[in-house]
What we know:
Layout: E1 10-14, H1 26-42, E2 46-49, H2 63-72, E3 78-85, H3 91-104, E4 109-114, H4 121-128, H5 138-149, E5 170-174, H6 177-186, E6 190-192, H7 201-211, E7 223-231, H8 235-254, H9 273-282, E8 286-289, H10 291-305, E9 309-313, H11 319-330
Parallel strand pairs: 1-2, 1-9, 2-3, 3-4, 4-5, 5-6, 6-7, 7-8, 7-9
Helix pairs in contact: 1-11, 3-5, 6-7, 8-9
Organism: Sediminibacterium roseum
InterPro entries: Bact_Lucif_Oxidored, CmoO-like, Luciferase-like_dom, Luciferase-like_sf
Family: To bacterial alkanal monooxygenase alpha and beta chains.
Amino acid sequence: MGKKLNAIPVSVLDLATIIQGDDSAAPAFQRSLLFAQHAEQLGYKRYWFAEHHNMESVASAATSVLIGYVAGGTQTIRVGSGGVMLPNHSPLVIAEQFGTLASLYPNRIDLGLGRAPGTDPVTSYALRRNMTGDVDQFPNDVVELLGYLGPRKADAKVKAVPGQDTNVPVWLLGSSTFSAQLAGMLGLPFAFASHFAPAQLHDALKTYRSHFKPSEFLPAPYAMACVNVIAADTDDEARHLATSFYQLALGLFRNDRKPLPPPVHNMDEIWTEREKFGVEQMTAYSFLGSRETISASLQKFVDDTQVDEIMVASHLYDAGLKKKSLGVIASLFDTK
């Protein structure tokens, strides 16, 4: 029997987006806290931040610090990373950071892990000072990190303090089948980045489920997909508001990564046909429209994927309209 939207949870992915007109990152952080508090009131399950670097529209680079700020300003919603890019860090450091967060905010912290650098090669080098943070070491690093967060081992030579015994839920994030297979083999929950890398969504979900082995972490597969959603009073209004998001995505193609701009009336005056095709391919899983429109399209997405949870990314220039959009989206899901 197929899953219904009103029977599955919904969560939020945030990048602490810097918009045109901000004079620093501070307003982005303040908006993120307000959005998280609003999402909590609406019954969203999680509020995650993604680690990116050297992007003028993204302020969530110091992900664990921002998680602490938002967890401290909320009461019940789970706050976490979607994700921490593990090749940029030592597993012990991440275990200590998230062990600290879990000790401060018990049963509310999630640790989503990615194996990409979350930036360009030059910035990757600046982050690590060398390139030994090899993505090929990712499986070993994940297992090492799980060990630091797990039960206390009296004979362990290296302990995460804080960290040990916190059992912070670890998720693997991916945009391909690699992390899907690893998540299945380790018995971890899996989240797919279909909001910007849609191509391998179905293959990754199939791989995850077929490789899943029950574990101390999870008895059965649990898959989440992240998609772009903008809800408004009408389909036309939602499409207009989405032009801010399209301009942001276009900046990735042009390597011109500016703060989120206000919407425009005609994207065809900005992008070429080739750029339009590229942006539309990258953002294929974008659901824009009125409540009725996105309800139907999101239900079809769940029918096609059978995911256990949806995470939404919503890039809107106007904070009030973003809060309104989050309210409409929440009304479609299980937010009890």
